[in-house]
Amino acid sequence: MMEFKSFKSSLSKIVENNLQFNIPIYQRLYVWDNEVVKVFLTDLKNAFIEDKQKDYFIGSIVYVKNETSIYDLIDGQQRNTTLWLISNVLGNDLDKFAFVDDKKMRLNFSIRTKVTEYFEFLRKTRNGNNLEVFEDEEDLINISKAYIQIKTFIENEENELFNKKREFAAYIFNKVKLICTEVPQETDLTKLFEVINARGVQLRQDEILKAKLLANINLDINHKHKTRNIAKIW
After folding, report:
1. If you count Cβ atoms within 10 Å of the first and of the last residue's Cβ in the chain, which end, N or C, has fewer?
2. What is the rounded distance in angstroms from the CA atom of residue 122 to the CA atom of residue 105?
3. What distance lies between CA 186 and its chain's CA centroid?
């Protein structure tokens, strides 16, 4: 019988347990728009201002260990990507969540090298004004808009967070909570992916077909390089 392991966790616990995440090739692009990011930021800020000693629950993530001992994110990509962007802006305690041993990114992307390169660029230039929107890059347009919104929101001098960045980072690191669920490696991930996504915005039929095809190719890990190429072509 397959056993699903679920537990409540903070970002600090994710760091303590050395969990590192990968966005698998069948996942959709980052789709959170400005309104969703704004609501997420505002909710975090209000929870911090109202009672910084109280835990704040932001949802759940579902993952499975892959052949490299890193965890593939089945559910929670949008939330984790946004948390990474917030961490890069705030720094302090959140640097431990954004980076493993201050070097390697805790969140990686299987085939979206442009996203990885963009994240590395943001890290190197975090104190500058990186306000470019990549309108012509499908992988980056929403992520770059989200980063600009986060940076503008947090660094607004009229915002209550402006002089409390270190405290806000510590609050997110220790008090923001997720329900983490690890599924067994023998789980039918394509079916689970479909079920999870049916709760919110429906996957397009072509996205479901892509997930099924790539999942079948992935049955043979010797074809990993070929799978990446096929995913890029798709």
Report:
1. N
2. 12
3. 24
d(CA 155, CA 51): 21
Contact in structure between 211 and 191 (CB atoms under 8 Å): no
State how far the Cα of 57 lies from the Cα of 31, in Å rounded to an integer: 21
- On the question of pLDDT at 162 being above 50, the answer is yes
Q: What is the DSSP letter of 193?
A: H
- The CA distance from 86 to 150, in Å, is 6
Q: Are 148 and 33 in contact (CB under 8 A)?
A: no
pTM check: above 0.90: no
Find out whether 146 and 37 touch, Cβ atoms under 8 Å. Answer: yes
Q: What is the pLDDT of residues 73-115, one digit of tens each?
A: 888 889 999 999 999 999 999 999 999 987 788 988 877 888 8
Q: How many residues does the chain have?
A: 234
